[in-house]
Amino acid sequence: MTSAALRSRAWKLLEMVTTPLLPSDYLDLISPLRAGADLRGRIEAVQPETGDAATVVIRPGRGWRGHTAGQYMRIGVDVDGVRLWRAYSVTSPTNRQDGRVTITVKAIPDGKVSNYLVRRAKPGTLIQLDQPTGDFVLPQAKPAKVLFLTAGSGITPVMGMLRDIEFDDVVMVHCAPQPQDVIFRNELHDLVADRKLRLTEVHTDTDGMLDIARLDEIVPDWADREAWACGPAGLLDAAEGHWSVHGVPERLHTERFRPGIVVAGGDGGEVTFSATGRTVDADGATPLLDVGEEAGVLMPSGCRMGICFGCVTPLKAGAVRDLRTGEITEAEPGVLIQTCVSAAAGPCDIER
Ligand SMILES: Cc1cc2nc3c(=O)[nH]c(=O)nc-3n(C[C@H](O)[C@H](O)[C@H](O)COP(=O)(O)OP(=O)(O)OC[C@H]3O[C@@H](n4cnc5c(N)ncnc54)[C@H](O)[C@@H]3O)c2cc1C
Ligand code: FES
Protein backbone atom coordinates (compact mmCIF):
# COMPACT_ATOMS: atom_id res chain seq x y z
CA MET A 1 0.00 0.00 0.00
CA THR A 2 1.38 3.42 -0.92
CA SER A 3 1.85 6.02 1.79
CA ALA A 4 -0.87 8.16 0.17
CA ALA A 5 -3.31 5.23 0.33
CA LEU A 6 -2.33 4.57 3.93
CA ARG A 7 -2.84 8.22 4.82
CA SER A 8 -6.24 8.14 3.16
CA ARG A 9 -7.22 4.97 5.09
CA ALA A 10 -5.97 6.45 8.37
CA TRP A 11 -7.96 9.61 7.70
CA LYS A 12 -11.10 7.54 7.00
CA LEU A 13 -10.60 5.59 10.25
CA LEU A 14 -10.18 8.83 12.13
CA GLU A 15 -13.37 10.09 10.52
CA MET A 16 -15.21 6.99 11.75
CA VAL A 17 -14.10 7.32 15.36
CA THR A 18 -14.80 11.05 15.47
CA THR A 19 -18.27 10.75 13.92
CA PRO A 20 -20.32 12.86 13.64
CA LEU A 21 -17.59 15.49 13.82
CA LEU A 22 -14.91 15.04 11.15
CA PRO A 23 -11.17 15.74 11.48
CA SER A 24 -11.58 18.54 8.99
CA ASP A 25 -13.91 20.14 11.51
CA TYR A 26 -11.00 20.50 13.90
CA LEU A 27 -9.04 22.33 11.20
CA ASP A 28 -12.07 24.59 11.02
CA LEU A 29 -11.28 25.74 14.50
CA ILE A 30 -8.11 27.27 13.09
CA SER A 31 -9.11 28.45 9.62
CA PRO A 32 -12.65 27.47 8.72
CA LEU A 33 -13.18 29.40 5.51
CA ARG A 34 -9.70 28.69 4.14
CA ALA A 35 -9.06 27.95 0.46
CA GLY A 36 -8.90 24.21 -0.22
CA ALA A 37 -11.08 23.35 2.77
CA ASP A 38 -14.42 21.64 2.16
CA LEU A 39 -16.82 24.41 1.36
CA ARG A 40 -18.12 25.93 4.55
CA GLY A 41 -19.92 29.05 5.61
CA ARG A 42 -20.35 31.07 8.75
CA ILE A 43 -23.75 32.23 9.91
CA GLU A 44 -23.40 35.97 10.43
CA ALA A 45 -26.98 36.86 11.31
CA VAL A 46 -30.45 35.37 11.72
CA GLN A 47 -33.15 37.91 10.90
CA PRO A 48 -36.80 37.14 11.78
CA GLU A 49 -39.22 37.48 8.85
CA THR A 50 -42.51 36.18 10.33
CA GLY A 51 -43.45 34.35 13.52
CA ASP A 52 -41.99 31.11 12.16
CA ALA A 53 -39.61 32.15 9.38
CA ALA A 54 -36.18 33.76 9.41
CA THR A 55 -33.49 34.78 6.96
CA VAL A 56 -30.08 33.30 7.66
CA VAL A 57 -27.17 35.42 6.45
CA ILE A 58 -24.17 33.27 5.53
CA ARG A 59 -20.62 34.18 4.58
CA PRO A 60 -19.41 31.40 2.29
CA GLY A 61 -15.77 30.33 2.39
CA ARG A 62 -13.32 30.58 -0.49
CA GLY A 63 -14.29 28.34 -3.36
CA TRP A 64 -17.92 29.51 -3.41
CA ARG A 65 -18.87 29.74 -7.07
CA GLY A 66 -22.02 31.84 -6.74
CA HIS A 67 -25.56 31.00 -7.77
CA THR A 68 -28.16 31.68 -10.42
CA ALA A 69 -31.39 33.23 -9.14
CA GLY A 70 -33.89 30.50 -8.22
CA GLN A 71 -31.27 27.86 -7.34
CA TYR A 72 -30.94 26.11 -4.00
CA MET A 73 -27.95 25.02 -1.96
CA ARG A 74 -27.46 22.11 0.41
CA ILE A 75 -26.32 23.03 3.88
CA GLY A 76 -25.03 20.72 6.60
CA VAL A 77 -25.65 21.76 10.19
CA ASP A 78 -24.94 20.05 13.50
CA VAL A 79 -28.15 19.70 15.47
CA ASP A 80 -27.74 18.12 18.90
CA GLY A 81 -24.51 16.47 17.79
CA VAL A 82 -25.84 15.05 14.52
CA ARG A 83 -24.88 16.56 11.18
CA LEU A 84 -27.99 17.00 9.04
CA TRP A 85 -28.15 18.16 5.44
CA ARG A 86 -31.08 20.05 3.96
CA ALA A 87 -31.69 22.11 0.80
CA TYR A 88 -32.63 25.81 0.89
CA SER A 89 -33.26 28.25 -1.95
CA VAL A 90 -30.93 31.22 -2.12
CA THR A 91 -32.88 34.40 -1.46
CA SER A 92 -30.12 36.97 -1.94
CA PRO A 93 -29.49 38.57 -5.35
CA THR A 94 -26.55 37.30 -7.40
CA ASN A 95 -24.82 40.70 -7.32
CA ARG A 96 -24.81 41.21 -3.55
CA GLN A 97 -21.73 43.32 -2.93
CA ASP A 98 -20.64 42.09 0.50
CA GLY A 99 -20.11 38.50 -0.67
CA ARG A 100 -22.73 37.12 1.71
CA VAL A 101 -25.70 34.96 0.72
CA THR A 102 -29.04 34.41 2.40
CA ILE A 103 -31.51 31.58 2.75
CA THR A 104 -34.93 32.02 4.27
CA VAL A 105 -36.27 29.19 6.36
CA LYS A 106 -39.77 28.45 7.62
CA ALA A 107 -39.89 26.35 10.78
CA ILE A 108 -42.21 23.37 10.33
CA PRO A 109 -43.74 21.38 13.20
CA ASP A 110 -41.14 18.87 14.51
CA GLY A 111 -38.69 19.98 11.81
CA LYS A 112 -35.16 19.39 13.10
CA VAL A 113 -33.15 21.70 10.87
CA SER A 114 -35.77 24.36 10.18
CA ASN A 115 -36.47 24.93 13.89
CA TYR A 116 -32.77 24.94 14.67
CA LEU A 117 -32.07 27.58 12.02
CA VAL A 118 -35.05 29.78 12.84
CA ARG A 119 -34.94 29.59 16.62
CA ARG A 120 -31.52 28.41 17.84
CA ALA A 121 -28.73 29.14 15.34
CA LYS A 122 -26.37 31.87 16.54
CA PRO A 123 -24.08 34.20 14.59
CA GLY A 124 -20.62 32.65 14.37
CA THR A 125 -21.93 29.11 13.81
CA LEU A 126 -20.07 27.21 11.10
CA ILE A 127 -22.06 25.17 8.60
CA GLN A 128 -21.14 23.05 5.61
CA LEU A 129 -22.19 24.18 2.17
CA ASP A 130 -22.50 22.69 -1.27
CA GLN A 131 -22.33 24.69 -4.47
CA PRO A 132 -25.77 25.99 -5.51
CA THR A 133 -27.65 23.92 -8.05
CA GLY A 134 -31.11 23.45 -9.56
CA ASP A 135 -32.92 24.25 -12.77
CA PHE A 136 -35.76 26.36 -11.33
CA VAL A 137 -34.21 29.41 -12.95
CA LEU A 138 -35.08 32.08 -15.50
CA PRO A 139 -34.10 31.68 -19.15
CA GLN A 140 -31.20 33.72 -20.57
CA ALA A 141 -33.57 36.11 -22.31
CA LYS A 142 -35.92 37.90 -19.90
CA PRO A 143 -39.50 36.70 -20.55
CA ALA A 144 -41.89 39.47 -21.62
CA LYS A 145 -44.67 38.42 -19.24
CA VAL A 146 -44.14 36.45 -16.05
CA LEU A 147 -46.42 34.79 -13.50
CA PHE A 148 -45.18 33.62 -10.09
CA LEU A 149 -47.53 31.26 -8.23
CA THR A 150 -46.30 30.54 -4.70
CA ALA A 151 -47.44 29.46 -1.27
CA GLY A 152 -45.80 29.52 2.16
CA SER A 153 -42.02 29.07 2.04
CA GLY A 154 -42.35 28.42 -1.70
CA ILE A 155 -41.90 32.15 -2.10
CA THR A 156 -38.14 31.85 -1.45
CA PRO A 157 -36.71 30.96 -4.89
CA VAL A 158 -39.05 33.48 -6.49
CA MET A 159 -37.88 36.21 -4.13
CA GLY A 160 -34.35 35.39 -5.27
CA MET A 161 -35.50 36.09 -8.83
CA LEU A 162 -37.45 39.27 -7.97
CA ARG A 163 -34.40 40.65 -6.17
CA ASP A 164 -32.16 39.77 -9.05
CA ILE A 165 -33.75 41.42 -12.05
CA GLU A 166 -36.41 43.96 -12.86
CA PHE A 167 -39.22 42.45 -14.89
CA ASP A 168 -41.24 44.37 -17.47
CA ASP A 169 -44.53 42.70 -16.59
CA VAL A 170 -44.74 40.41 -13.57
CA VAL A 171 -47.74 39.15 -11.65
CA MET A 172 -47.54 37.17 -8.44
CA VAL A 173 -50.23 35.11 -6.73
CA HIS A 174 -49.12 34.11 -3.24
CA CYS A 175 -50.96 32.01 -0.66
CA ALA A 176 -50.41 32.09 3.12
CA PRO A 177 -52.77 31.49 6.05
CA GLN A 178 -52.90 35.14 7.17
CA PRO A 179 -51.33 38.46 6.11
CA GLN A 180 -48.72 38.23 8.89
CA ASP A 181 -47.59 34.85 7.54
CA VAL A 182 -46.56 36.29 4.17
CA ILE A 183 -42.76 36.14 4.11
CA PHE A 184 -41.13 39.31 2.62
CA ARG A 185 -44.53 41.08 2.74
CA ASN A 186 -43.15 44.61 3.20
CA GLU A 187 -40.66 44.20 0.37
CA LEU A 188 -43.36 42.82 -1.93
CA HIS A 189 -45.64 45.74 -1.11
CA ASP A 190 -42.80 48.17 -1.83
CA LEU A 191 -42.42 46.58 -5.29
CA VAL A 192 -46.17 46.96 -5.81
CA ALA A 193 -46.03 50.64 -4.74
CA ASP A 194 -43.19 51.19 -7.24
CA ARG A 195 -45.31 49.50 -9.96
CA LYS A 196 -42.71 46.79 -10.38
CA LEU A 197 -45.06 43.97 -9.38
CA ARG A 198 -48.75 43.14 -9.43
CA LEU A 199 -49.60 41.02 -6.38
CA THR A 200 -52.62 39.03 -5.25
CA GLU A 201 -52.41 37.59 -1.76
CA VAL A 202 -54.69 34.66 -0.98
CA HIS A 203 -55.17 34.36 2.80
CA THR A 204 -56.21 30.77 3.11
CA ASP A 205 -57.55 31.03 6.70
CA THR A 206 -60.26 33.40 5.46
CA ASP A 207 -60.36 32.88 1.66
CA GLY A 208 -59.90 29.09 1.69
CA MET A 209 -57.35 27.23 -0.44
CA LEU A 210 -56.74 28.68 -3.87
CA ASP A 211 -58.97 27.01 -6.47
CA ILE A 212 -56.65 26.96 -9.48
CA ALA A 213 -59.60 27.72 -11.80
CA ARG A 214 -59.72 31.17 -10.13
CA LEU A 215 -56.58 32.09 -12.06
CA ASP A 216 -58.86 33.00 -15.00
CA GLU A 217 -60.33 35.76 -12.86
CA ILE A 218 -57.16 36.82 -10.94
CA VAL A 219 -54.75 36.75 -13.90
CA PRO A 220 -56.88 36.57 -17.06
CA ASP A 221 -53.82 36.24 -19.35
CA TRP A 222 -52.12 33.54 -17.21
CA ALA A 223 -51.77 31.15 -20.16
CA ASP A 224 -49.72 33.73 -22.11
CA ARG A 225 -47.24 34.11 -19.27
CA GLU A 226 -44.08 32.15 -18.53
CA ALA A 227 -44.87 30.79 -15.07
CA TRP A 228 -42.81 29.63 -12.07
CA ALA A 229 -44.64 27.88 -9.24
CA CYS A 230 -43.38 26.71 -5.85
CA GLY A 231 -45.39 25.55 -2.87
CA PRO A 232 -47.07 22.49 -1.37
CA ALA A 233 -47.75 19.42 -3.51
CA GLY A 234 -51.52 20.13 -3.70
CA LEU A 235 -50.98 23.52 -5.33
CA LEU A 236 -48.30 22.25 -7.71
CA ASP A 237 -50.29 19.16 -8.73
CA ALA A 238 -53.32 21.38 -9.44
CA ALA A 239 -51.19 23.85 -11.42
CA GLU A 240 -49.56 21.13 -13.52
CA GLY A 241 -53.00 19.68 -14.28
CA HIS A 242 -54.39 23.12 -15.16
CA TRP A 243 -51.53 24.10 -17.48
CA SER A 244 -51.73 20.67 -19.20
CA VAL A 245 -55.49 20.78 -19.71
CA HIS A 246 -55.08 24.19 -21.36
CA GLY A 247 -52.35 22.88 -23.65
CA VAL A 248 -49.50 25.02 -22.30
CA PRO A 249 -47.58 22.69 -19.93
CA GLU A 250 -44.21 23.92 -21.25
CA ARG A 251 -44.94 27.42 -19.87
CA LEU A 252 -45.04 26.16 -16.28
CA HIS A 253 -41.86 25.55 -14.24
CA THR A 254 -42.26 24.01 -10.79
CA GLU A 255 -40.03 23.47 -7.77
CA ARG A 256 -41.01 20.97 -5.06
CA PHE A 257 -39.63 21.07 -1.52
CA ARG A 258 -40.89 17.55 -0.75
CA PRO A 259 -41.08 14.33 -2.78
CA GLY A 260 -44.13 13.71 -4.93
CA ILE A 261 -46.44 10.76 -4.40
CA VAL A 262 -44.75 7.84 -2.69
CA VAL A 263 -45.95 4.25 -2.98
CA ALA A 264 -47.06 2.40 0.13
CA GLY A 265 -44.12 0.59 1.73
CA GLY A 266 -43.93 -3.19 2.15
CA ASP A 267 -42.29 -5.26 4.88
CA GLY A 268 -39.26 -3.68 6.52
CA GLY A 269 -36.35 -5.46 8.15
CA GLU A 270 -33.22 -5.21 10.24
CA VAL A 271 -30.86 -2.54 8.86
CA THR A 272 -27.14 -2.74 9.53
CA PHE A 273 -24.93 0.32 9.11
CA SER A 274 -21.73 -1.67 8.95
CA ALA A 275 -19.21 1.20 8.83
CA THR A 276 -20.68 2.66 12.03
CA GLY A 277 -21.42 -0.72 13.58
CA ARG A 278 -25.07 -0.15 14.33
CA THR A 279 -28.13 -2.34 13.63
CA VAL A 280 -31.73 -1.20 14.02
CA ASP A 281 -35.21 -2.39 13.03
CA ALA A 282 -36.89 -0.38 10.25
CA ASP A 283 -40.34 -0.49 8.77
CA GLY A 284 -40.84 -0.70 5.02
CA ALA A 285 -42.03 2.90 4.59
CA THR A 286 -39.38 4.99 6.38
CA PRO A 287 -36.47 6.18 4.19
CA LEU A 288 -33.15 4.64 5.22
CA LEU A 289 -31.82 8.18 5.49
CA ASP A 290 -34.24 8.87 8.38
CA VAL A 291 -33.54 5.44 9.89
CA GLY A 292 -29.78 6.12 9.87
CA GLU A 293 -30.06 9.65 11.24
CA GLU A 294 -32.35 8.41 14.00
CA ALA A 295 -29.72 5.80 14.89
CA GLY A 296 -26.99 8.47 15.08
CA VAL A 297 -25.26 7.36 11.87
CA LEU A 298 -23.55 10.08 9.80
CA MET A 299 -25.75 10.09 6.69
CA PRO A 300 -24.97 12.42 3.78
CA SER A 301 -28.07 13.99 2.23
CA GLY A 302 -29.37 17.06 0.48
CA CYS A 303 -32.77 17.44 -1.11
CA ARG A 304 -34.23 14.38 0.69
CA MET A 305 -36.46 13.80 -2.30
CA GLY A 306 -34.44 11.88 -4.86
CA ILE A 307 -33.18 14.72 -7.04
CA CYS A 308 -29.67 15.68 -5.92
CA PHE A 309 -27.98 12.26 -5.39
CA GLY A 310 -26.32 13.69 -2.27
CA CYS A 311 -27.31 10.58 -0.28
CA VAL A 312 -26.01 7.86 -2.59
CA THR A 313 -24.60 4.93 -0.60
CA PRO A 314 -23.44 1.38 -1.48
CA LEU A 315 -25.89 -1.41 -0.64
CA LYS A 316 -23.69 -4.21 0.73
CA ALA A 317 -26.31 -6.88 1.41
CA GLY A 318 -30.05 -7.44 1.32
CA ALA A 319 -32.68 -5.49 -0.57
CA VAL A 320 -34.36 -2.06 -0.51
CA ARG A 321 -37.55 -0.66 -2.02
CA ASP A 322 -37.70 2.61 -3.98
CA LEU A 323 -40.52 4.51 -2.27
CA ARG A 324 -41.43 6.37 -5.48
CA THR A 325 -41.83 3.38 -7.76
CA GLY A 326 -42.03 0.32 -5.50
CA GLU A 327 -39.06 -1.17 -7.38
CA ILE A 328 -36.84 -3.56 -5.38
CA THR A 329 -33.05 -3.28 -5.64
CA GLU A 330 -30.94 -6.20 -4.44
CA ALA A 331 -27.33 -5.93 -3.30
CA GLU A 332 -24.66 -6.67 -5.86
CA PRO A 333 -21.08 -5.43 -6.02
CA GLY A 334 -21.15 -1.76 -6.99
CA VAL A 335 -24.87 -1.24 -6.42
CA LEU A 336 -25.66 2.25 -5.08
CA ILE A 337 -28.94 3.39 -3.56
CA GLN A 338 -30.45 6.77 -2.76
CA THR A 339 -31.17 6.44 0.96
CA CYS A 340 -33.69 9.31 0.96
CA VAL A 341 -36.14 7.42 -1.26
CA SER A 342 -35.28 3.82 -0.31
CA ALA A 343 -36.71 1.76 2.54
CA ALA A 344 -35.69 -1.64 3.86
CA ALA A 345 -37.23 -4.57 2.00
CA GLY A 346 -36.08 -7.25 4.42
CA PRO A 347 -32.74 -7.28 6.24
CA CYS A 348 -30.08 -5.14 4.59
CA ASP A 349 -26.63 -3.73 5.15
CA ILE A 350 -25.74 -0.28 3.87
CA GLU A 351 -22.20 1.03 3.91
CA ARG A 352 -22.41 3.87 6.43
C1 LIG B 1 -34.89 22.23 -3.68
C2 LIG B 1 -35.40 22.57 -2.30
C3 LIG B 1 -35.41 23.88 -1.86
C4 LIG B 1 -35.90 24.18 -0.59
N1 LIG B 1 -35.92 25.49 -0.19
C5 LIG B 1 -36.45 25.80 1.02
C6 LIG B 1 -36.50 27.16 1.46
O1 LIG B 1 -36.04 28.08 0.76
N2 LIG B 1 -37.05 27.43 2.67
C7 LIG B 1 -37.55 26.44 3.48
O2 LIG B 1 -38.03 26.74 4.58
N3 LIG B 1 -37.49 25.13 3.10
C8 LIG B 1 -36.94 24.79 1.90
N4 LIG B 1 -36.87 23.48 1.52
C9 LIG B 1 -37.30 22.44 2.50
C10 LIG B 1 -36.11 22.09 3.42
O3 LIG B 1 -35.09 21.45 2.68
C11 LIG B 1 -36.52 21.12 4.55
O4 LIG B 1 -37.20 20.03 4.00
C12 LIG B 1 -37.41 21.79 5.59
O5 LIG B 1 -36.76 22.90 6.19
C13 LIG B 1 -37.77 20.77 6.68
O6 LIG B 1 -36.59 20.27 7.27
P1 LIG B 1 -36.57 19.90 8.81
O7 LIG B 1 -35.27 19.27 9.13
O8 LIG B 1 -36.99 21.05 9.63
O9 LIG B 1 -37.73 18.81 8.89
P2 LIG B 1 -37.57 17.17 9.16
O10 LIG B 1 -37.01 17.05 10.57
O11 LIG B 1 -36.78 16.63 8.04
O12 LIG B 1 -39.04 16.74 9.07
C14 LIG B 1 -40.01 16.93 10.14
C15 LIG B 1 -41.39 16.52 9.66
O13 LIG B 1 -41.86 17.44 8.66
C16 LIG B 1 -42.12 16.78 7.41
N5 LIG B 1 -41.54 17.68 6.36
C17 LIG B 1 -40.27 17.65 5.84
N6 LIG B 1 -40.11 18.65 4.96
C18 LIG B 1 -41.27 19.33 4.90
C19 LIG B 1 -41.71 20.48 4.17
N7 LIG B 1 -40.91 21.14 3.31
N8 LIG B 1 -42.98 20.89 4.39
C20 LIG B 1 -43.80 20.25 5.27
N9 LIG B 1 -43.43 19.17 5.99
C21 LIG B 1 -42.20 18.71 5.81
C22 LIG B 1 -41.37 15.46 7.50
O14 LIG B 1 -42.03 14.47 6.74
C23 LIG B 1 -41.42 15.14 8.97
O15 LIG B 1 -42.65 14.55 9.33
C24 LIG B 1 -36.37 23.15 0.26
C25 LIG B 1 -36.34 21.81 -0.17
C26 LIG B 1 -35.85 21.52 -1.44
C27 LIG B 1 -35.83 20.08 -1.88
S1 FES C 1 -30.83 13.56 -0.60
FE1 FES C 1 -31.01 14.27 -2.64
S2 FES C 1 -31.23 12.42 -3.75
FE2 FES C 1 -31.25 11.76 -1.72
Automatic annotation (TrEMBL):
Q: Key word Flavoprotein present in the record?
A: yes
Protein name per Swiss-Prot or TrEMBL: Ferredoxin reductase
Q: Which cofactor does it need?
A: FAD
User: What InterPro entries does its record include?
Assistant: 2Fe-2S_ferredoxin-like_sf (IPR036010), 2Fe-2S_ferredoxin-type (IPR001041), Beta-grasp_dom_sf (IPR012675), Cbr1-like_FAD-bd_dom (IPR008333), FAD-bd_FR_type (IPR017927), FNR_nucleotide-bd (IPR039261), MRET (IPR050415), OxRdtase_FAD/NAD-bd (IPR001433)
Task: Spell out the Pfam families in the cross-references.
Answer: FAD_binding_6 (PF00970), Fer2 (PF00111), NAD_binding_1 (PF00175)
PROSITE patterns, alphabetically? 2FE2S_FER_2, FAD_FR
Record keywords: 2Fe-2S, FAD, Flavoprotein, Iron, Iron-sulfur, Metal-binding, Oxidoreductase
Residues annotated as domain 2Fe-2S ferredoxin-type: 269-352
The FAD-binding FR-type domain is annotated at 36-139
Keyword match Oxidoreductase: yes
